[in-house]
Amino acid sequence: MGSRRSIRHLTALLGVAALTSLAAVPLAGITAGSVASAATTPLTSKMTPADRENGKPLFRKTSSPSIGQTFSCQAPASATNQLPCYGPAQIRNAYDIPSRLTGAGQTIVIIDAFGDPTVSSDLALFDSTFGLPKANLNVIYPAGQPTFDPTNADEVDWAGEISLDVQWSHAVAPGATIDLVIAKSDEDADLLVAQQYAVSHNLGSVISQSFGEAETCMEPSILTAQHAAFVAAATNKISVFASAGDDGAALPACSGNGYIKSASTPATDPLVTSVGGTHLNASFSTGTYESESVWNDSGTAVDIGAGGGGFSTIYTKPAFQNSANTGSSFRGVPDVTYNADIFGGVLAACSECNGGTPAFFVFAGTSSGSPQWAAITALADQQAGHRLGDLNPALYTIGASGIAGAAFHDVTKGNNSWDVSGVTGYSAHRGWDPASGLGSPNAAILIGLLALP
């Protein structure tokens, strides 16, 4: 069986000791952190982390910020001397996430692999640092709790994914319950068990999945079973999200050698809302929105990826894309997009990413967008007073309406031709495109439209 990789990038420059803030580090001194590569043989080997720049983690310790203060990478001058970053207040302001809604009464289901022994303490550190209320977190092991190996780079990589997913879904919907469902490994078959468990036990109103692989790398029987789980989710009015990937229009080849032009599963399933990536231009201190372009780090000092997007070779174009996706007869992704660039990544606490010592990192990748879109949907469910279920038809209806410009930030600049892959991608333009989807959310307006009777 194959295994799916966690879709997230972690910047190694910003790890710090417990309750400390982030140091200002010159851009030239930054190395990329652990990112995932492809399997060595198709459908049989794990997708293991690999540092694309062969760098080692670089940590800088400074004093702790008080609640309400900002980390040094959020200072206005940070864009010129290090990787700038955002905290919860800035992202909430940039995407106009309404504070009157908290997700109370809703449950966000997050599917990940291997587990994270410090997930609860890291979440508590994140909450206390940013003044967020205590989270209601449940950790569920459908196939039994695996033994976490802190010397296994793959498992540590997934621990970082868990930190990002849990903390940022909570940052957007602080009143929602979080059910973290842990697969015993990142093998396709094991992740399928977690997916099936989450759906069959009807754990929550929305599911987030920050992992994926090229469609052709998944065994057909597992792909069929995965789709069946999403059919059951739609029947139960469960909204499902997945990250579109971090390699632009490419994904690692099934052989592990190089890249192929491909869209990512589970993001390509028509019953899944696929989340791409942008570079967000907003105030690093206030979060005031300015603009967005397609995330693409090609040629930069920290060239870790670009927003995933393209066309399925398995699923034909669903009806909801008939008017938006006019250039292909196949399912196009992403459906929507969100902040993902490392140049403006998000802060999260991850002890296992720092050898077991509590630390803050800047995270990037489309992994950041899936749990946050799931949390926005939990807010919409709260406002509606019921589950909204499969969102794609409603999202595309809004996208084709006269109010689309108010509900979405239409991303019209940039492309996802990532230089490392050597694969030509797609350019953004007005309306839906396979680089930025329908756009990023103006959450207050979009929630109101989704929640209409």
What CATH first level would be assigned?
Alpha Beta
What is the count of structural domains? 1
What general form does the structure show?
globular
CATH fold node name: Rossmann fold
Structural class by sheet pairing and helices: alpha/beta
How many extended strands? 23
Question: What fraction strand?
Answer: 15-25%
What's a concise summary of this model?
The chain is of the alpha/beta class and 453 residues long. It has helices at 78-81, 88-94, 119-130, 153-172, 188-200, 220-235, 369-384, 392-399, 404-407, 443-450; strands at residues 5-6, 9-11, 35-36, 49-50, 85-86, 107-113, 136-140, 177-183, 206-209, 211-214, 239-243, 250-252, 259-261, 264-265, 273-282, 289-294, 310-316, 330-333, 336-339, 345-349, 360-364, 408-409, 440-441. Helix content is 24%, strand content 21%.
Question: What would your notes on this structure say?
Answer:
The protein is an alpha/beta fold. The chain has one domain (5-450): 3-Layer(aba) Sandwich (Rossmann fold). It has helices spanning 78-81, 88-94, 119-130, 153-172, 188-200, 220-235, 369-384, 392-399, 404-407, 443-450, and strands spanning 5-6, 9-11, 35-36, 49-50, 85-86, 107-113, 136-140, 177-183, 206-209, 211-214, 239-243, 250-252, 259-261, 264-265, 273-282, 289-294, 310-316, 330-333, 336-339, 345-349, 360-364, 408-409, 440-441. The strands form 7 sheets. Strands 6, 7, 8, 9, 11, 15, 16 and 19 form an 8-stranded mixed β-sheet that branches. Strand 15 and strand 16 form a beta hairpin. Helix 3 (119-130) crosses helix 4 (153-172) and helix 4 runs parallel beside helix 7 (369-384).
